[in-house]
Amino acid sequence: MSFVILSASCSRYDVNQSLIKGINEGGLGKPAISIASEYLSYRDKILSIVTEITFGGITMNAFHEAVHSSYYSTFKIETEFLFADEHYDAAVVMLMKCHELAQAHAYSIYLLQCEEHSVPQTGMDKTPQLKFDYKAGSFLDEIKLTDTEK
Q1: Beta strands in the chain (DSSP E)
Q2: How far apart are the first and last CA of the chain?
Q3: Positive or negative torsion for Cα 84, 85, 86, 90
Q4: CB–CB of 31/114 below 8 Å?
Q5: Nearest to 108 by CA among 133, 63, 76, 73
Q6: Which of 12, 39, 98, 105 has the fewest C-beta atoms under 10 angstroms from its C-beta?
Q7: What Å distances lie between residue 34 and 41, 45, 91, 122, 142, CA to CA?
Q8: What are phi and psi of 42, to 5 degrees?
Q9: Contacts 24+ apart (CB under 8 A), 85-93
C-alpha cells in the first residue's frame, strides 16, 4: 500500500435523548442511519477525510435526527505515487480505499458511542463504488492542480 493510517477520531457526538425515546417507542418512524464522507484536505503528505453519521427515525414526511456525529481520519500518503501521471488509476484506487477505511473507522467509533449513550444500532451499507470513483478522481485532479500551482 502507498499509505499509512495515522488516526481516527470523533470530533462531535450530539444525542437528543427525547428523540431516541420516541424512536424506541415507535412513534418517530423506522430507525435509519446516514453516512457521508468527504475528502477534506491534502497537505504535507497528510490526507484528511471527514465522515458525518446521522441517526434518526424516518417517516414518509420527515427524518427526525436524533444523533449527529463527525469523525476525522488521517492517512500519510507517498506523495510521489499520488502525483505521478503513470499511477493515476492506482492513485484513485488508493484514495477510494482511504475513503472506505475512513467510513469503517467512523462507524466503529460510532457503535461504541451508541452503546455508551443507549442509542439503538443499525447496520451500515457500503457506499456505491461509482460514487467513490468520482469523488476520488475529482479530489486527485484538484490536489494535483493545487500542487502544480506552488
Answers
A1: 3-15, 30-43, 46-58, 63-77
A2: 27
A3: positive
A4: no
A5: 73
A6: 12
A7: 22, 30, 27, 10, 26
A8: -140, 110
A9: 88/140, 90/2, 91/2, 91/140, 92/133, 92/136, 92/137, 92/140, 93/136
**Given 3-state DSSP classes, what are the helix, strand and coil percentages for the chain, each rounded to the nearest 5?**
45, 35, 20
Residue 88: how many other CB atoms lie within 10 Å: 15
Q: What separation in angstroms does the CA of 63 have from each of 19, 30, 46, 137?
A: 11, 10, 35, 31
Q: Which three cell numbers stand for residue 11?
A: 470530533
CA distances from 106 to 3, 36, 54, 71, 86 (A): 18, 10, 11, 6, 32
Q: Looking only at Cα atoms, what is the longest distance across the chain?
A: 57
Q: Which residues lie across from 74 on neighbouring strands?
A: 7, 48
Letter string b/e over residues 22-42, b meaning 16 or more CB atoms within 10 A of that residue's CB: bbeeeebbebbbebebebeeb
Q: Is the pTM of this model over 0.90?
A: no
Tens-digit pLDDT profile for residues 64-91: 999 999 999 999 987 666 777 777 888 8
